[in-house]
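Thread: Modeling a multi-component assembly for a lab meeting

Hi all, long-time lurker, first post. My supervisor asked me to bring a structural picture of a complex we are working on to next week's group meeting, and I have zero experience with this. I have the sequence lines for every component (357 residues in total). Could someone generate the structure of the whole assembly? Inputs are pasted exactly as I received them:
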Amino acid sequence: MNDFQRKIIQWYNLNKRDLPWRQTLDPYRIWVSEIILQQTRVDQGLAYYERFIARFHDVRQLAEADEQEVLSVWKGLGYYSRARNMHHTARRIVQEYAGVFPETCHQLLRLKGIGKYTAAAIASICSHEPVPVVDGNVVRVFSRIFGIEAMAGTTASFNKVWERSSALIDRDDPGTYNQAVMEFGALCCKPANPGCGQCIFRNDCFAFGNQMVDRLPVKKKEISRRERWFTYLYVRVGGGKVLMQQRPQGDIWQNLWELPLIEADHLLGPAEVSAHPVVNQGGELEEIIAVNPKDYRHILTHQIIHARFYEISGYQTGEAFEAGDYRVMEDPLVTGLPVSRLTDRYLHWRAGNMQGL
DNA sequence: AACTCGGGGTC
DNA sequence: GACCCAGAGTT
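Re: Modeling a multi-component assembly
Sure thing. I ran the full set together rather than chain by chain. Output:
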């Protein structure tokens, strides 16, 4: 056993957090946890993991559910393709693998939603395959300790970190080794204000020795964000129902539901909304009865969404909309329909402020 | 290799 | 406001 793995595993045994997916070696549960934790902090994913496992106990239950149910459990977590891919892969595992997860990293890699990181994580934890994981934590820890200066996120960086970790991995317990490096990155070797003072590698760390801790790993330039303007219409149809539509393919929030949307290069004023076809489609001009007082500013990785919500009074001929893209449905708050965080925020605000209307 | 896909915690 | 999180799929 080399010095690095001995020290990091000892540190891990003393400092690791008590997390539910560390109580099992069930590939299904490890898989669920790894997908949830993609680009997601442990604190944020924890409740979702508990809910997901409670609702879908095993891969067969997940395979038997419809996608809408899976998306509903995922609602608010973001990167919804993870949920769609999991559902797809669950069905494939049941049909092609008789419900038994593949064991090797190579086989796992062929499943939708499972990339290099997740394949290595599942294989090393569940099957003791000695393959290193390379995630944001591992890149940071290795870049600092060993002075890897390749820009984070590039294949050069990935390959150098992978080679280093591959040479140091504990071949008897690769799963614990991998989790130890990640946990160390999450708790000690943090992006900002790392705990170098009490770090077990402070005498060996390249970055610490060269005062480069704040410059490693080398970060890539900030991405630009596209601005978009969404004017949403809460159209009350009658009987407590409202018009809804499903998000299109190839855009954000694919397959989630939302209110009728007018996207333009600005947020629409009341006059523009009144003149809009959606508002007049019932045959006569309907009345705008409310607008949320403050426009929303919803920030995604590559987009800034400006949003405004109008509430429009009762059509009695909602059936007219069934022919188009719109559907007459119960308020999504009641039905648990999968909606974006933006829509969810508005609906909750409305429920708390519009009781009299 | 570059882009896109969410949402939120942290500094 | 910038950064970045137990990344993956598409182009």
